[in-house]
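We were asked to recover a plausible sequence for a given structure. The inputs and outputs are reproduced exactly as logged, with field labels preserved.

PROBLEM: sequence recovery
POSITIONS: 124
GIVEN STRUCTURE:
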């Protein structure tokens, strides 16, 4: 991600469920305390959601810092109501283009991950 990030934008890194490689996806959402909330526009069909279901350990880049965490798809959550709590631009795009909305909460670990550890997935 070069230049300035849009407010509410982040970079989500999951582990590929078949390859084991790091997969990075730009996402929109918001941080609330030690959690980051987002709504997937294609629900469980999104590649990053399928990766999360296989391995919920993720990394999230917020404001130029990496954080580790555990992601939780929340199918019982009201994704449309959740969108009203998220940054407007992203929410508008998800509402317009989304086919099967799904809330995802990422519980962030207490410390930032400034460098990839040796046990982290390989990068492309």
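RECOVERED SEQUENCE:
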């Amino acid at each position: 991600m070069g230049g300035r990030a849009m407010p509410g934008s982040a970079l989500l890194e999951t582990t590929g469920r078949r390859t084991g490689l790091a997969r990075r996806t730009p996402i929109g959402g918001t941080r609330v305390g030690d959690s980051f909330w987002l709504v997937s526009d294609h629900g469980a069909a999104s590649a990053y959601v399928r990766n999360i279901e296989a391995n919920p350990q993720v990394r999230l880049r917020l404001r130029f810092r990496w954080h580790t965490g555990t992601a939780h798809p929340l199918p019982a959550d009201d994704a449309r109501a959740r969108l009203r709590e998220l940054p407007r631009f992203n929410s508008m795009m998800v509402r317009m283009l989304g086919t099967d909305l799904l809330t995802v909460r990422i519980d962030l670990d207490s410390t930032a991950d400034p460098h990839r550890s040796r046990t982290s997935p390989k990068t492309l």
